[in-house]
Amino acid sequence: VQLQASGGGLVQAGGSLRLSCAGSGRTFSRFTTGWFRQAPGKEREFVGSISASGGTSYYADSVKGRFTISRDNAKNTVYLQMNSLKPEDTAVYYCASGIRGSWPRTNDWEYDYWGQGTQVTVSS
User: Fold this and answer.
1) Which of 76, 83, 92, 105 has the fewest CB atoms within 10 Å distance of its CB?
2) How far is Cα 47 from Cα 53, in angstroms, rounded to an integer?
3) What tens digit of pLDDT does each residue of 59-105 get?
4) pLDDT at residue 27 is higher than 90
C-alpha cells in the first residue's frame, strides 16, 4: 500500500480545508485509515480514523465537531474535511493505513503504511 496525502495549504482562522489521502494497492480499502498530525517541536498526535467500510469514524477531542473523515473506496481515497480551523491546528498532516491493534487505532504503531505528509498552516 502506498499513500499520497495532498490538499494542505495556508488558511485563515475560521476557514476550511479538505485533505485527501490517495491509496494504491488492493488492501487499502480493507484497512482502517487514520489521520495524524505533527506540529513543530511536538509529538505526532492522532486526529481521527475511519473504518475500512467507511461506516464508522472516531476523532480526537481536539477536533471533534470540526473535522470529518470520509472515504470513497471506489476511488481509493480518504478525505479529511477540516472546518473552523484554529492556529493550533497548524501541523504537518499524515494519513496512515493499517489493521494492527484494535479499533479505533489511535496509536501510530497500529499503522503499517504512511503517506508523506502535507503542511497545513492556519493564520490568526
Assistant:
1) 83
2) 19
3) 999 999 999 999 999 999 999 999 999 999 999 999 999 989 999 99
4) no
| Close Cβ partners of 120 (under 8 Å, ≥ 6 residues apart) | 8, 9, 11, 17, 19, 37, 82, 85, 89, 90, 91, 92, 93
Measured CA to CA, the distance from residue 4 to residue 75 in angstroms comes to: 13
The rounded distance, in Å, linking the Cα atoms of 103 and 42 is 25
Contact between 78 and 20 (Cβ < 8 Å): yes
pLDDT band at 25 (very low <50, low <70, confident <90, very high): confident
The single residue listed with the C-alpha cell 502535507 is 118
Length of the chain: 124
* CB distance 17 to 82 below 8 Å: yes
